[in-house]
Amino acid sequence: MRRWNGWGDDATSMELNDNARAMMAERLGPGHPAKDAVRDAIIAQIPVSRLVGAHPLIQTDASTRFAMALGESFGDWIRKRFGALPPVPDGVAFAESTEQVRELLDLAHAKNWMVIPFAGGTSVAGHLDCPISERPILSLNLSRMNRLLHLDKQSQLATFGAGTPGPQVEAQLRAQGYTLGHFPQSFEYSTVGGWVVTRSSGQQSLRYGRIEQLFAGGRMESPVGTLVIPSLPAASAGPDLRELVMGSEGRFGVLTEATVRVTPLPEHESFHAIFLPNWDAAEAAVRTLVQRKLPLSMMRLSNGIETETNLTLAGHAKLIGWMERYLALRGCGSGKCMLMLGVTADKGTARHALKEARRTLAEFGAVYIGPAMGSKWAANRFKGPYLRNPLWDEGYSADTIETAVDWPNVKTLMLAMEQASRDVFAQYGERVHAFTHLSHIYPQGSSIYSQFVWATAPGGFAPNFERWQKLKAAVAKTIADHGGTVSHQHGVGRDHATQLHVEKGPLGMATLAELCRHFDPKKIMNPGKLLQDEGPWAQ
Ligand SMILES: Cc1cc2nc3c(=O)[nH]c(=O)nc-3n(C[C@H](O)[C@H](O)[C@H](O)COP(=O)(O)OP(=O)(O)OC[C@H]3O[C@@H](n4cnc5c(N)ncnc54)[C@H](O)[C@@H]3O)c2cc1C
């Protein structure tokens, strides 16, 4: 069963090994384990629903409403852990078809309720937060719209119910010899519709593309009508209306069906760990590689601190120690950077791509250590976030912040993001362990994905929320100052809405507001997300 106040399925656990514990204690000082709130006690505080008896599809019991109240951001995490209850939806409707979505939207529009679409619930940007409002709030849950509706093998197009989660997307396609190839780290729970409306990126985007390249068309029910976007191979028929759906974050309507471009299952797939002597060599190497346009499926480059952290977390200290001595002899000592390389293709292409990649990387001092670590990475590719659970139990908090920027600014921005976090915690006389990787690498530039671990503050929700808000604000300002995007893959939601104007400008923001008014004149759809046009919010 899915954990209610932590990441993932409660049948899967990760443990911190002794070296990882020692590393945290050395870098951050002792952790401060916090006492978890009891779920039943939180639920007992939930006020009576304003939607009791409103429609047969709408459930109003407190337990179901609480389960839809929050996503997976750090702010959401500490609300659950400390029992700091925000407003929760008044009702939850589990729609099973486009017709039911249409009926519920018409009702909400007529009655002036707010509607928050809820799919996998994996948002890390406050997309699912409920404002404090006089209007009743309906959570429109899409998890029952989870089937492959049509597969056109000739055109390699598959149409899914928008609430289909990653494992069911892949299982239904694999049964017929196909894959979508979209593997965000939240794959276990996030859905095809959620990916589209938040502009998601999967680990093998280098081969399969981001969701923008995979989304061919679909059907969106908005308060004022239905938008059907046909899936065409290409069109010069004016602006592409798919762009209105991608990144719309539930503001314009509910995507009920998504047609995506699929690929026959690959003949060969393997992942390989390669070490480079230092950041400058590593960055130049991956830039050269991506600009050569070799048919690789993934490049994930960890900086020196992340490499050290990952090797510590991996356990097997003896084996890793032996490997590190060997790497040092070959010029990859302290400050070395690990590159995880994915090769997905037919056997001949894969052999050629790996050979050529290794030849290019060798020019930058790379040392290849064979496929064993890569296979281990692949086996655990969705497990990383599970480490947040034992970290929290040991008294440490963790969050991630990501962006993308052109090559000349990649290193400067990466260092500035890490430094901004250190400056925030220094104000409290505390430390933060910050480390970064580049996970989506483009000829023009790269995404930058930084992770932050710090000792949970004693004193409950308020001091922890304050530190997190300061961390987010300082890093967001640093990103804006360096010309980075508000988000490369997590979307805007409520948490990043304050910064969006920097990227879009006044006319761009006015255009987005006008589109919201056009599709949703009564502002019932997920207000306050993407644009700062709703509130107040719980503090
Ligand atoms: C541990 C972890 C790892 C992650 N890794 C990645 C990653 O590698 N890459 C990445 O891109 N993201 C990642 N994310 C972020 C998150 O998984 C994505 O934003 C994902 O696309 C959200 O999909 P979801 O189905 O969970 O949507 P939800 O969280 O349920 O909803 C997100 C937003 O979309 C709206 N929405 C959802 N479905 C619809 C629909 N059908 N129609 C209209 N509106 C809708 C909701 O109202 C909400 O505003 C990660 C998150 C976590 C917690």
Short description:
It contains 19 helices and 18 strands. It is an alpha+beta fold.
User: Which CATH top level class of the domain at 148-264 fits?
Assistant: Alpha Beta
Counting DSSP H or I runs of 4 or more residues, the number of helices is: 19
How far do the termini sit from each other?
30 Å
Helix percent band: 25-40%
Question: What does the overall shape look like?
Answer: globular
- Return Rg in Å: 23 Å
Biggest sheet architecture: 7 strands, antiparallel
- Spans of 5+ residues with little confidence (pLDDT < 50)? none
Question: What is the CATH topology descriptor of the domain at 148-264?
Answer: Uridine Diphospho-n-acetylenolpyruvylglucosamine Reductase, domain 3
Give the averaged pLDDT, no decimals: 97
Listed once per kind, the bound small molecules are: flavin-adenine dinucleotide
Strand order of the largest sheet: 15-12-14-13-17-18-16
Tell me the quaternary state.
single chain
Strand runs, count = 18
Based on secondary structure, the structural category is alpha+beta
Strand content: 15-25%
CATH architecture of the domain at 148-264: 2-Layer Sandwich
